[in-house]
Amino acid sequence: MIIDGKKIAEEIVEGLLAERSALPPVLRLGVLMGKEDAASASFVKIKERVASQLRVLVVREMLSESATTADALGALSRLAKICEGIIVQLPLPMPIDSEEILKAIPQGKDVDAINPDTQESLVLAPVAGAMAEIFECYNINGRQKKAVVVGAGRLVGAPAAKLLADIGAQVSVVTQTDGSLQELKDADLVVLGAGSQWLVKPEMLKEGVVLLDAGTSEQGGKLAGDADPRCAEVASVFTPVPGGIGPIAVAMIFKNLYTLVRKNTRS
User: What is the pLDDT of residues 75-94, one digit of tens each?
Assistant: First the structure.
């Protein structure tokens, strides 16, 4: 089964639109970003399109290639003063200490749940939230299942591994320095977040695997996933790139924004 992420995302957005009138009339989502590559440009455009549907104003702070960490902190501070939610669109220009920037995101505005200093996030990271939506929609039970996460990045691998552990899966994480792709052969659940085009081939997988591809890379301006599209032939559940996890994760950003606004309004 190939998951139609756009359809699931549209259903989430429809629900959020129905709830919009109960929130403040003006909502702003701040985006701190450097020069756009194909992947980040695509993500930001999708976010802006959904924001427009939900009457959320996107406020961009663009950083030049020569921007310093201090410049980025200043831009983040400006966004924090006027926006209800904040996204730091990685990667930032090389001279900037991204870790310091992420640590400066206020917890109550961290729609990506990405601040590494946060002990207990108020919301699920968007990719983890997207996975949870898919599990619920298709009655996928990960308890006691062998799960392999490829990549340990803070946007995909780390939150995916945490979610899988929380639902009772037996999780291993494969990176360039730890583990092996051989582990995929007997995995019931596989999450890909390496950002390496078509890294995983059908013959590397177990028949009937649940394969959630959240890895993105670009070649000639086109997005591609970590899984060779032929992997859909052996998977019982498969998320394509583009059109799978990505649209759902974007919808989850706005679901998180709503949650944080409600929490901040009550406090």
Answer: 999 999 999 999 999 889 98
